[in-house]
Amino acid sequence: MRLADNPRPIVAAVRRFVEKEVRPVASSLEHADRYPHELVARMKELGLFGALIPREYGGLGLDSTTYAMVIEELCRGWMSLAGVINSHTIAALIVLNHGTDEQRRRFLPSFSRGEARGGLCLTEPHAGSDVQAIRTVARRQGDTYLITGTKMFVTNGREGNTFALLARTDTAANPPHKGMSCFIVEKGHPGLQVVKSIGKLGYKGVDTAELVFEEFPVPAANLVGGVEGRGFKHVMSGLETGRINIAARAVGVAQAAFDAAIHHVRARRARAIPPILADIATRLGASRLLTSWAAGMKDRGERCDLEAGMAKLYASEAAQEIAVAAVRILGEAGALTSLDVERHYRDTPLMLIGEGTNEIQRLVIARNLLERYGEQPGALTSLEGLPDERKQMILAARQFVEKQVVPVARESERARRYPAEIVETLGDLGILGAIVPPEHGGLGLDFTTYAMILEELARGWTTLAAIVSDHLTVAHLTARSGTAEQRKRLLPAMARGDLMGCAALAGTVTARRAGRDWVLSGTIPAVDNASHGALFAILARTDRERSACFLVERNAKGLTLSAPLDTLGARGLHTCEVHLKGVRVPGPALAADGAVLALARLGIAA
Ligand SMILES: Cc1cc2nc3c(=O)[nH]c(=O)nc-3n(C[C@H](O)[C@H](O)[C@H](O)COP(=O)(O)OP(=O)(O)OC[C@H]3O[C@@H](n4cnc5c(N)ncnc54)[C@H](O)[C@@H]3O)c2cc1C
Prior knowledge:
By secondary structure, the chain is of the alpha+beta class. It folds into four domains: about 10-115, Butyryl-Coa Dehydrogenase, subunit A, domain 1, CATH 1.10.540; about 120-230, Butyryl-CoA Dehydrogenase, subunit A, domain 2; about 255-370, Butyryl-CoA Dehydrogenase, subunit A, domain 3 (Up-down Bundle); about 375-605, Acyl-CoA dehydrogenase/oxidase, N-terminal domain (Butyryl-Coa Dehydrogenase, subunit A, domain 1, Orthogonal Bundle), CATH 1.10.540.10. The protein contains 17 helices and 15 strands. The chain has helices at about 10-30, 35-45, 65-75, 80-100, 100-115, 230-235, 240-265, 275-300, 305-330, 340-355, 360-370, 390-415, 420-430, 445-460, 460-480, 485-495, 595-605; strands at about 120, 135-140, 145-155, 160-170, 180-185, 190-195, 210-220, 500-505, 510-515, 515-525, 535-540, 545-555, 560, 575-585, 590. The strands form three sheets. Strands 8, 9, 10, 11, 12, 13, 14 and 15 form an eight-stranded mixed beta sheet that branches. A hairpin with a 2-residue loop joins β2 (about 135-140) and β3 (about 145-155).
């Protein structure tokens, strides 16, 4: 979903803040590596420090989807601002989800107000990806733990004051993570020194620091959850939100780089259009969808470690490629420090590392995929958000494919055999009328469910998915633009599968006016399922150089087909060349609007 027109008030408020207050100053603050005190104060006023904290503790109580949108908006202006919020938010979530009631009451309201400014202390000089290798210890002494060790790369380490810190409380534990505990550590004792601010390639302005603890006293009441040995799980559980956050950041920075590229190309109208714009826009859209998908699962309380990891992995890699592409498109201007694009180029690599490097991400995702294979219908798709009847439809399609399609697909494909019996059963199941309105005998499903059904069919045999998708593209065109007579006569038969549609949307057909009729001539080189189709939707160019669609029945005078063509794959589809020689079509042409072509493309994508 494009976030620009989002109706959520907080997202709109953050967008205004970014446009008016962040963009004008971001580059100069970033180049000076100066902490943005004034912007952080405004973020407090907006309530962003309590974004995910429930209202009862003074937070905004946003869901993860809205939070991701907020982060995207911030990062369109300046990625470092999201850094100020994110590790703070993860520290707060550790207290919210794993702390005692007393800890929640004590810490969460001040986290919400941004008085307690949180950070995460996990990484150490010799322990990054391998968190279990940390050496920081917390030794109990009466009602206090004494913490000794060094923590690296702590975002908000200098400006923050309240950290979630992972330390070993049992150094003999095996595996080591069973001896780790999480503490809420508040600054204010000389045993904690911020010894160094760490300079970085990008992501400047937000402080990244090295913290040294020497016998630093922490009250036992700050041991998260009050029980030792659970800290590793506590900090890992926060990383789901952290990964969604990085994915959303990546989308924001990528959007900013893309916007800069588009503005540049539009400003130089005479130059050729760079085709790479298509690739980067597609990757940007896919990143946003993966991010909102993972966030949506989190909001529904589903397990989403795999999906959050995928979103983080994909979006961060895409953001880096998009930033590089923007530099290429701008040419020399892409390297100018007076423009934002070079900043996006420097910011994006940090997202490949933060919240788990992408190499580790790949290992974890691959392991998860093997362990959880088959848990969810559809390779990647969660059905949890769908109403029950839709879920049933998809599961019925899956069962049908497994029982009736998979056993015969290979042999039928090899023999180039049209799957007549299977198509008939699809008609009986209602799938051939999936998106036909119920008043015309169809199921009237939404496009999301329709796309998922097509995906299931294609998992069994692409030929089948192509037959259904072409047929329903024609049915949709008829329902949308056909006359009342056409809808009444054609749609019920199409929904039953008695009348199969074929989409002929690419070719060199011309349409000439002849009184109230049209006369079509030309050739469409490859029309799927043509030899079994009874109704063709044909896209043609009219006298006025416009595109229009025409419904032509198979027995129309002047319409002929070649023998089925040999194809590389999707055999059994009986793709033919269609010739039209003076084919007369009565009545008005149908609107050849983008929705029909979009539906055809959706069919191929599914
Ligand atoms: C900008 C920024 C902000 C950060 N903020 C914080 C923070 O607030 N708090 C905090 O605790 N930490 C923070 N970090 C640290 C971050 O979490 C670590 O950098 C990250 O976990 C990687 O650890 P490392 O840098 O030690 O790299 P290493 O773990 O040493 O990894 C180096 C390389 O080896 C690869 N590698 C390592 N192990 C394996 C393996 N088993 N298999 C395959 N490849 C492997 C990695 O993928 C990577 O490519 C931050 C880092 C950055 C860059």
